[in-house]
Every structure is written in structure tokens, then in C-alpha cells.
């Protein structure tokens, strides 16, 4: 009986395999890469499951022309889920920055692996390019897949109201991808400077959370706002009628002379005091700045361009620091 050589049989069953520096980078960070890919696959499956449940409900009420005016009460559960998961997706850039970006180079510097690699036939530039390129590829694939899947879940109802259109809509499209790439590049830069893995992760966490908070406040300001005013007082029914999917940026009191005052200018204890305040300040109506629905796409692309520019700057710093001050 003739038996095929073990090595020949094993080779015939193998598919394409990584080699050289690519294999080393994947091997070093395989736990983070596989975790990201697994979470992405699980997230897509969960979004598909939730979308199927939502569509079953919408079909049962005759969507897009519901038979009963009370259908919206039953839809609140699905709307709440969309809002909650948009918040969860908003945290992904923080996680990739902390668990992928920060240790990517810092761990090598702390344990001397980077010096060992670059002492071989591998240049510092190639080593850094492979590290950053592989991490950026994984981040791009995962965030794009989750963004597209969430947009698919949201799509049938995104025009339902301003909350779904703007808050949930902000985690679809290119914006979350660019934000993930920026926090990853920033985490790498922080790790290279601090050269300690745990410390880098802590600092990157603080940095990424700050970026998230600032960005969540500032990115709607990138759009071209429209102002709606009324001069019918500030009682019931006097607030400007905004489009259904408008994003309310700012509300102010309007005085008879056209001056704008804070909507909290007359936040007093009782109605009599409030009315006296309104009369004293000559407040005659409202002034509201808002973004119409048409501003969502240009606002997201403008924000994406800014984040990609910051990512390029952080990446350039990583290569500059790596060539000049790594060892």
C-alpha cells in the first residue's frame, strides 16, 4: 500500500496563506482582528433579525399607509431600538482606537519586538506601513459593513421623523468609517509617543471619548442652517412649523427690535413672573435655526473630509516619528 507524503497532502488542501511581514502582523494582532470581524458578523446578523421583526410589524399595520392612527404607539419599540443601536455604533470608534490603535505599535516598543523586526531585512517604513495598512483595512471593512447593514435596517423608516433621520442616519454612510480610521491613527500615534501599552490605551480612551463628544456636538454645525421666525408671541401654537425631518439646531426668543435672546431668558417660577419678563424684554416670537433634510448628505461628506484629513495628519506624524525618534 502506497501512502502519499504527508507534506504533499497538506499542501494540496491549503488555500492562499499569508507570508513574510503580512503573516507576522496578522499573527501579532490576530486576536483584535478576529474579534472585530466576529463582532461585525454578529452585528450584521442581529440587524437583519431586528429588521425582519420591524418589517413584520409594519406589514401588519399596512405600511407605508397604516390603517390605524395608533400604529405609531406600537412602532415606538422599534424606534427605540434603532436609536439605542445608533448609540452603540457611535462607540465603535472609541473601541477600535483603544483596543487596536493604541497597542498596535506601543506593544512592540514596550517588548522590543519592533527593534527585532527592523533589525532584519525590513525597513521601519515598511514595517509601519504594513502595521497601519492592515489595521486600517480591518477597520474599514468592519465599520463599512456595520454602517451599510444598519442603514439597511433603518432605510424603510428613516424619513419617519427627525430623530431617526439625523441621529440614526449619522451612523450610516462614510462618517463612522472616517471616525474609526481617525481614532485608530490617533491611537497609534499616542502609543508611539508613550511607548507603554496600558498607558497608551488609557490616554487613547480619554482622547477618543473627547473626540466623540466634541464631534457629536459640532458636526451638525457643518451644514447650512435655515432660520424660521414667528411674531405671534411665545404661547401655545406659536412655535415655527418645521419640516418633519428637520434638525433643530438652536431656539431663541425674538424681540420687537429683532434681537435674539436665549430661550431660558424668562425661565421663572410662575406664569405671572414669566409674562412680566416677556413683556419687559419685548419678546414677540421665536427664532429657530434648523437643518433641512437635504443637508444631511453634504454635512456628512464635509465631516468625512475633515476626519480623513486629520487621519492623514496623524498617519504622517506616525511615519515621521517612526523614522526619526522610534529608537
Task: Please outline the helices and strands.
Elements: H1 6-13, H2 20-28, H3 30-60, H4 71-111, H5 113-118, H6 124-154, H7 162-168, H8 175-194, H9 197-218, E1 226-229, E2 247-255, E3 260-262, H10 271-280, E4 283-291, H11 296-324
Antiparallel strand pairs: 1-4, 2-3, 2-4
Describe this structure in words.
The chain has 327 residues and is of the alpha+beta class. Helices cover 65% and strands 8% of the residues. The chain has helices at residues 6-13, 20-28, 30-60, 71-111, 113-118, 124-154, 162-168, 175-194, 197-218, 271-280, 296-324; strands at residues 226-229, 247-255, 260-262, 283-291. The chain has a four-stranded antiparallel beta sheet. A hairpin with a 4-residue loop joins strand 2 and strand 3 (260-262). Helix 4 (71-111) runs parallel beside helix 7, helix 4 runs antiparallel to helix 9 (197-218) and helix 6 (124-154) packs antiparallel against helix 8 (175-194). The longest helix has 41 residues, at 71-111. The protein is globular, with a radius of gyration of 26 Å. Keywords: Membrane, Transmembrane, Transmembrane helix. The chain crosses the membrane at residues 31-49, 85-106, 127-153, 165-190, 197-216, 300-321.
Amino acid at each position: 500500500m502506497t501512502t502519499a507524503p504527508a507534506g504533499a497532502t497538506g499542501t494540496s488542501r491549503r488555500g492562499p496563506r499569508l507570508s513574510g511581514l503580512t503573516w507576522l502582523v496578522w499573527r501579532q494582532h490576530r486576536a483584535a482582528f478576529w474579534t472585530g470581524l466576529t463582532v461585525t458578523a454578529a452585528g450584521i446578523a442581529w440587524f437583519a433579525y431586528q429588521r425582519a421583526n420591524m418589517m413584520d410589524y409594519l406589514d401588519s399595520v399596512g405600511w407605508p399607509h397604516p390603517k390605524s392612527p395608533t400604529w405609531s404607539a406600537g412602532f415606538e419599540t422599534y424606534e427605540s431600538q434603532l436609536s439605542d443601536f445608533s448609540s452603540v455604533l457611535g462607540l465603535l470608534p472609541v473601541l477600535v482606537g483603544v483596543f487596536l490603535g493604541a497597542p498596535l505599535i506601543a506593544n512592540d516598543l514596550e517588548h522590543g519586538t519592533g527593534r527585532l523586526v527592523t533589525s532584519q531585512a525590513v525597513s521601519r517604513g515598511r514595517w509601519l506601513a504594513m502595521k497601519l495598512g492592515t489595521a486600517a483595512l480591518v477597520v474599514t471593512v468592519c465599520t463599512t459593513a456595520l454602517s451599510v447593514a444598519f442603514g439597511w435596517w433603518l432605510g424603510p423608516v428613516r424619513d419617519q421623523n427627525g430623530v431617526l433621520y439625523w441621529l440614526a442616519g449619522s451612523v450610516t454612510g462614510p462618517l463612522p468609517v472616517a471616525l474609526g480610521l481617525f481614532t485608530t491613527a490617533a491611537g497609534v500615534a499616542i502609543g508611539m509617543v508613550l511607548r507603554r501599552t496600558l498607558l497608551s490605551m488609557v490616554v487613547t480612551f480619554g482622547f477618543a471619548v473627547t473626540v466623540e463628544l466634541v464631534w457629536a456636538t459640532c458636526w451638525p454645525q457643518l451644514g447650512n442652517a435655515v432660520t424660521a421666525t414667528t411674531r405671534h408671541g411665545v404661547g401655545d401654537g406659536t412655535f415655527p412649523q418645521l419640516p418633519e425631518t428637520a434638525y433643530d439646531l438652536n431656539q431663541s426668543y425674538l424681540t420687537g427690535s429683532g434681537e435674539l435672546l436665549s430661550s431660558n431668558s424668562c425661565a421663572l417660577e410662575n406664569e405671572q413672573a414669566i409674562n412680566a419678563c416677556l413683556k419687559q424684554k419685548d419678546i414677540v416670537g421665536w427664532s429657530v435655526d434648523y437643518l433641512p433634510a437635504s443637508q444631511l448628505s453634504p454635512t456628512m461628506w464635509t465631516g468625512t473630509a475633515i476626519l480623513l484629513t486629520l487621519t492623514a495628519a496623524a498617519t504622517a506624524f506616525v511615519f515621521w516619528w517612526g523614522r526619526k525618534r522610534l529608537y
